[in-house]
Write a structure and sequence with these properties.
The chain is an alpha/beta fold. It has helices at 22-33, 46-54, 89-98, 150-164, 186-197, 214-219, 230-235, 243-250, and strands at 6-9, 37-41, 62-65, 70-73, 78-81, 103-107, 113-115, 128-130, 142-146, 168-173, 176-181, 204-208, 221-225, 238-240. The longest helix has 15 residues, at 150-164.
């Protein structure tokens, strides 16, 4: 049976903009009952995204984590993954620290937040490592970091592109930066996803709000959230107040 349509929705600031209320849950249910696919695509790491989903009271079809690098069933079973060789991690973390970043969250099969020093009292101690304590990992999907402001994050993003652009792709997300492999972004993840489903380019609808959504917003038929940054609004085909309104429009439902 051919799929009708696929929504690939960003999570923070999009699906979870002002919470996930009963109307959103009902809209997603209607979408899926009509034979369509609803997926969440996020810059969050795979374990974190699975945990977030388990806390919610609605059902979707797939979770796409690490800006497209990991495609999972909702129980956390990995369907497809884009791994980065661990040899890149240490020199890259050293570079991040030299740029003023206090930590790098190495996204792998377990939480691993690496610090320049031991100043991590505000974080879960079981997830925290100093740089010297970091054990060798078999691989990683993504490294996240954050700075004090949007402007600082933009500056570090440009520096990463200049020094590591042949192997890594930094995606700014507000004052945060998500760093994936050079060939990965949300659009690439969606292309892999629709290939796995046997779907087509024209089946996809994307919705997002921040800079790390730009590739999927530009590539596919797309919606920008009303709260989206100007770049996303400029790239999107439509603007929406949220998932409920988007689904009502796509199903041609009069609210």
């Amino acid at each position: 049976m051919k799929l009708l349509k696929i929504i690939a929705s960003d999570y923070d600031g999009t699906l979870n903009h002002g919470g996930i209320d009963k109307k959103k849950i009902e809209a997603i249910s209607q979408w899926r009952k009509a034979g369509n696919i609803f997926s969440i695509i996020s810059g969050r790491g795979a374990p974190d995204l699975v945990d977030l989903y388990k806390e919610q009271s609605f059902e979707c079809d797939y979770l796409i984590a690490d800006n497209g690098a990991v495609i999972m069933k909702t129980n956390g079973e990995i369907v497809c993954e884009d791994k980065i060789d661990v040899s890149v991690a240490k020199p890259f973390l050293e570079f991040l620290f030299s740029q003023g970043c206090k930590w790098g969250y190495v996204q792998t099969s377990f939480p691993c937040r690496v610090f320049k020093d031991d100043d991590f009292e505000d974080y879960d101690k079981d997830e925290c490592f100093t740089f010297d304590e970091l054990t060798e990992l078999p691989f990683f999907y993504q490294i996240n970091t954050a700075l004090e402001s949007f402007e600082e994050a933009a500056k570090v993003t440009a520096a990463i592109k200049e020094k590591f652009g042949d192997v890594l792709n930094p995606l700014q997300n507000g004052n945060c930066i998500d760093i994936v492999s050079v060939n990965m972004n949300k659009a690439k993840g969606i292309y892999t996803f629709i290939e796995l489903l046997g779907a087509e380019y024209s089946d996809v609808i994307t919705v997002g709000d921040n800079i790390n959504d730009k590739d999927m917003i530009k590539e596919f038929r797309s919606y920008a959230m009303e709260n989206a940054v100007p770049l996303i609004k400029d790239l999107a085909d439509y603007e929406t107040s949220g998932i409920t309104e988007l689904i009502e429009k796509e199903l041609d439902i009069n609210p």
